[in-house]
C-alpha cells in the first residue's frame, strides 16, 4: 500500500496520525488464526421477559405440540410402509386433493423405492401399442356407461380407472425390475468378463502358438 | 404431502403443460407462522373468550375443516374440561360466526363442478363468499354429543371448509405492537384510544397499502362514544389525539383538516421508527451506550466523517474509533468513499464517510434473528431427544403417582415409588424442563423482533 503514489511517491497515502496511533505506538496485533467459532460474549444479553402473556404462551405451546404429536396427523416412519390403507385413518379431506396423492400404490412405491417416478414417466412413452388400445377401449366403454347411467356410476368409473392404474403401475413395477434386460438380451452382463475364465483354459494354448 | 396440504403448508395447481399433473409449492409464510400459533390463541382469548379460543385451537389442529366438525370437536373438548356437563352447541355456533365476521377464519376455495373427473381438482372461490357462514344444523350435532360419538359423520355443510386466516392474524399482531408502543409513549388511555382508531382504519382501508385511508375527527368521536371506554378518554380524547399526533414516533399523521381533522397512519414511517428503535436496543445491548450514541448520530445525520463523529458525540478519539470499527465489522455502519482528486502528483486523498444503510442493516439483523431462532429450536430438539428416555421415565412415574393418589393409596407407598427415581435424575429433569421453557420463551420473543423487522422491509418495498 505504501509508496504507490505517482511521481515523487515517497510519502504514503495516509497519515499515521490519522489512524490514531501516534509515532511510537504499535499497531494492532496481527491475527494468526481464524476467529473462534463461539467468541466470548462481552455483554450478557437481557433476561427474558416473563409476564402473564408469555407464561400463557409457554403453556399453550407445550399443549399444542403434545396434541399435534398425538394427533393422527403425526406420521411415524413405520406406518408409512406397512399400512395398506392409511387413507382411511388420516382425517384428511381426500376429495380435495389431486388424484395421485389418493392413489395408494403410488405413495407406497415412493415410500419403498427411490425415484422410480421419473423412470416411469419416460417408460410410459415406450408403452406397447396394445396397452394403449386396451386403455382406449376401456375409456370408451366407461364413457358410454357414464352417459347412460349418470351419477351413480361415477364411483365405479373412478374405481375402474384406479384399478386400471393399479394394473398399469404393477406392470411398470415389473418392468422396472427388469431394467437390466435392455433390448431383451443380457449383453450388458457379459460384456465385462470376470477374471475366472483366465486360468481355466490352459489346454487351448497349443492352438494359439500357430497364429501369426 | 397430503398432511401438509391439509394444514395449508403446501398448495397445488394443475401444471400448464399437462392438466393431469399437479405442481406443488410451499407456502413459506404459513410454515413460519406455525411458531406463532400460541400467540394467535392468546389474542383470541383476550379479544373474545374461551369458547372462541377452543374453536380456533381445534381448527389449528385439524388444518382445514367444516364448521360443524369444528363445533362438534370443541364441544367435546369443553365437555371433557367441565367433566361431563353437556354444552349447547348453538352458543359455539355463534362464537364461530363472530370469528368469521372479524375475518379471523376464512373459507377455503371449494371444488369446481367438474373437479371430480379431473385428476387435479381445481379449487375456486368468490370474493363475497369468503366469510359467509352457512346454516349449520344444530340438532344432529347435539344428538351426536349425547351419544358421545368420536366422529361426526356426513352433515349438511361438509363441503364448506374453513381454515385459519393468517394474514388477518398478522395484521392483528402488528396492531398489538403499535398499541403497546402508544401505551408506552404516552399512557394506557392513549393506548385504548389508539386501539379504537386502529379498528376504524382497518375497517376502512385496504390492508396491503402502505398508508391507511384518512378518518375524520368526528368519526373518531362517534366511535369513542359508542364504545363505553373510560370517562377519562371521553373527556380528554382530543388532547390525547393531539399528543399522539405530535409525538415523533409518527403513530398518527394528519394529512388534512376536513371534518375537524383527517388522521391516518403511515405504516412505513411508523415501522421505520420501530425498526430503528429495535436496532438501537440491539446495538446498546451488544456494544454499549457509547456505540449507541455513535450509531444514532450517524443514522440521523446521514453521512459523517470520523472526526465529526467523535466531536459531536463527545467521546474520546480512541474509543470513538474503536466503536466505529466494531460497528463497521458487524455491518451496522457502512462506508462510502469519495475521492478528492486534486493534482496528479500529490497522493490522492479521499473522504471516508460513514452512514447507516437502513434496509441493509435491517436485513442483516433479520438474518441474525432467524439464526438465533433456529439455534434455539435446534438446541431444544437436541436436549429433548438426548434425554428422551429419562423424560419419558419421569412422565410415566408422574402419571402413576397421580393415579395412585386418586385411588387413595397410603402415602408410604407413594414415597417409595417416587424414590425409584434418584434425586440427581429428578434435578436433571427439572433442569431440562427449565432450559426447554427458556428456549421456547426466547423463540417467542425473537419472533416479535422478526415481525417488526419484516414489516418494515415489507412496507419499504411497497413504497418503491
UniProtKB/TrEMBL annotation, chain A:
Acidic residues composition-biased segments: 145-183, 198-212
Cross-referenced PANTHER family: DNA-DIRECTED RNA POLYMERASE III, DNA-DIRECTED RNA POLYMERASE III SUBUNIT
First-listed, main subcellular location of the protein, grouped into a coarse class: nucleus
Function summary: DNA-dependent RNA polymerase catalyzes the transcription of DNA into RNA using the four ribonucleoside triphosphates as substrates. Specific peripheric component of RNA polymerase III which synthesizes small RNAs, such as 5S rRNA and tRNAs.
Location within or outside the cell: Nucleus
Entry's Gene Ontology BP terms: transcription by RNA polymerase III
Positions of the UniProt region annotated as Disordered: 130-212
Domain of life: Eukaryota
Family membership: Belongs to the eukaryotic RPC7 RNA polymerase subunit family.
Record flagged with keyword Nucleus: yes
Biased segments, Basic and acidic residues type: 130-144
Keywords: Nucleus
Protein name as it appears in the record: DNA-directed RNA polymerase III subunit
Pfam families: RNA_pol_3_Rpc31 (PF11705)
Classification of source organism: Eukaryota, Metazoa, Ecdysozoa, Arthropoda, Crustacea
Complexes and interactors: Component of the RNA polymerase III (Pol III) complex.
UniProt KW Electron transport keyword: no
GO cellular component: RNA polymerase III complex
Originating organism: Daphnia pulex (Water flea)
UniProtKB/TrEMBL annotation, chain B:
Record bears the keyword Nucleus: yes
Domain of life: Eukaryota
Keyword Nucleus among UniProt keywords: yes
Record-level GO BP terms: DNA-templated transcription
Any one cellular-component term (Gene Ontology): RNA polymerase III complex
InterPro entries the UniProt entry points to: POLR3C_WHD (IPR055207), RNA_pol_III_Rpc82_C (IPR008806), RPC3 (IPR039748), WH-like_DNA-bd_sf (IPR036388)
Subcellular location: Nucleus
UniProt GO molecular function: single-stranded DNA binding
Quaternary context: Component of the RNA polymerase III (Pol III) complex consisting of 17 subunits.
Family statement drawn from the similarity comment of this UniProt entry: Belongs to the eukaryotic RPC3/POLR3C RNA polymerase subunit family.
Protein name (record): DNA-directed RNA polymerase III subunit RPC3
Amino acid at each position: 500500500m505504501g509508496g504507490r503514489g505517482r511521481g515523487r511517491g515517497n510519502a504514503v497515502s495516509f497519515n499515521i496520525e490519522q489512524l490514531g496511533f501516534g509515532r511510537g505506538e504499535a499497531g494492532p496485533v496481527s491475527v494468526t488464526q481464524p476467529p473462534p467459532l463461539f467468541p466470548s460474549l462481552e455483554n450478557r444479553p437481557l433476561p427474558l421477559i416473563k409476564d402473564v402473556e408469555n407464561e400463557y404462551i409457554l403453556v399453550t405451546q407445550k399443549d399444542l405440540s403434545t396434541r399435534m404429536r398425538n394427533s393422527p396427523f403425526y406420521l411415524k416412519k413405520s406406518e408409512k410402509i406397512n399400512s395398506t390403507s392409511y387413507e382411511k385413518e388420516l382425517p384428511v379431506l381426500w376429495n380435495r386433493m389431486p388424484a395421485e396423492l389418493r392413489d395408494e400404490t403410488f405413495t407406497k412405491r415412493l415410500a419403498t423405492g427411490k425415484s422410480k417416478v421419473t423412470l416411469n414417466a419416460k417408460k410410459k412413452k415406450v408403452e406397447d401399442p396394445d396397452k394403449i388400445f386396451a386403455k382406449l377401449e376401456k375409456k370408451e366403454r366407461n364413457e358410454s356407461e357414464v352417459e347412460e347411467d349418470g351419477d351413480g356410476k361415477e364411483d365405479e368409473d373412478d374405481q375402474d380407472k384406479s384399478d386400471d392404474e393399479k394394473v398399469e403401475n404393477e406392470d411398470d413395477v415389473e418392468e422396472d425390475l427388469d431394467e437390466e434386460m435392455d433390448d431383451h438380451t443380457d449383453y450388458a452382463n457379459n460384456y465385462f468378463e470376470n477374471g475366472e475364465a483366465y486360468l481355466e483354459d490352459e489346454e487351448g494354448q497349443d492352438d494359439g502358438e500357430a497364429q501369426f | 404431502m397430503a398432511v401438509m396440504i391439509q394444514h395449508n403448508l403446501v398448495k397445488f395447481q394443475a401444471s400448464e403443460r399437462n392438466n393431469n399433473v399437479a405442481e406443488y409449492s410451499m407456502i413459506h409464510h404459513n410454515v413460519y407462522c406455525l411458531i406463532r400459533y400460541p400467540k394467535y390463541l392468546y389474542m383470541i382469548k383476550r379479544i373474545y373468550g374461551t369458547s372462541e379460543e377452543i374453536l380456533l385451537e381445534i381448527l389449528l389442529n385439524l388444518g382445514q375443516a367444516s364448521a360443524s366438525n369444528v363445533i362438534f370437536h370443541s364441544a367435546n373438548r369443553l365437555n371433557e374440561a367441565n367433566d361431563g356437563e353437556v354444552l349447547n352447541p348453538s352458543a359455539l355456533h355463534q362464537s364461530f360466526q363472530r370469528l368469521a365476521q372479524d375475518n379471523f377464519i376464512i373459507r377455503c376455495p371449494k371444488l369446481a363442478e367438474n373437479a371430480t373427473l379431473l385428476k387435479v381438482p381445481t379449487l375456486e372461490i368468490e370474493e363475497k363468499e369468503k366469510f359467509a357462514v352457512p346454516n349449520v344444523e344444530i340438532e344432529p350435532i347435539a344428538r351426536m354429543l349425547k351419544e358421545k360419538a368420536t366422529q361426526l359423520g356426513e352433515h349438511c355443510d361438509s363441503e364448506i371448509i374453513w381454515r385459519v386466516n393468517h394474514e388477518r392474524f398478522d395484521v392483528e399482531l402488528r396492531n398489538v405492537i403499535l398499541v403497546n408502543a402508544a401505551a408506552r409513549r404516552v399512557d394506557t388511555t392513549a393506548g385504548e384510544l389508539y386501539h379504537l382508531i386502529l379498528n376504524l382504519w382497518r375497517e376502512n382501508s385496504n390492508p396491503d397499502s402502505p398508508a391507511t385511508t384518512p378518518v375524520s375527527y368526528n368519526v373518531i368521536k362517534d366511535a369513542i362514544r359508542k364504545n363505553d371506554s373510560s370517562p377519562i378518554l371521553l373527556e380528554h380524547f382530543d388532547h390525547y389525539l393531539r399528543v399522539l399526533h405530535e409525538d415523533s414516533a409518527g403513530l398518527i399523521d394528519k394529512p388534512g383538516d376536513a371534518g375537524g381533522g383527517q388522521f391516518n397512519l403511515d405504516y412505513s414511517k411508523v415501522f421505520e421508527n420501530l425498526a430503528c428503535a429495535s436496532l438501537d436496543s440491539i446495538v446498546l445491548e451488544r456494544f454499549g451506550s457509547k456505540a449507541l450514541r455513535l450509531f444514532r448520530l450517524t443514522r440521523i445525520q446521514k453521512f459523517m466523517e470520523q472526526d465529526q463523529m467523535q466531536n459531536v458525540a463527545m467521546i474520546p478519539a480512541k474509543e470513538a474509533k474503536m466503536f466505529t470499527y466494531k460497528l463497521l465489522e458487524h455491518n451496522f455502519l457502512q462506508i462510502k468513499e469519495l475521492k478528492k482528486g486534486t493534482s496528479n502528483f500529490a497522493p490522492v486523498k479521499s473522504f471516508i464517510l460513514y452512514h447507516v444503510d437502513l434496509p441493509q442493516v435491517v436485513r442483516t439483523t433479520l438474518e441474525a434473528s432467524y439464526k438465533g431462532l433456529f439455534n434455539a429450536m435446534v438446541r431444544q430438539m437436541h436436549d429433548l431427544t438426548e434425554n428422551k428416555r429419562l423424560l419419558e421415565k419421569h412422565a410415566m412415574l408422574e402419571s402413576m403417582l397421580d393415579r395412585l393418589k386418586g385411588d387413595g393409596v397410603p402415602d408410604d407407598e407413594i414415597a417409595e415409588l417416587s424414590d425409584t427415581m434418584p434425586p440427581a435424575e429428578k434435578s436433571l429433569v427439572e433442569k431440562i424442563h427449565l432450559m426447554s421453557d427458556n428456549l421456547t420463551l426466547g423463540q417467542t420473543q425473537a419472533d416479535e423482533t422478526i415481525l417488526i423487522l419484516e414489516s418494515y422491509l415489507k412496507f419499504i418495498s411497497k413504497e418503491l
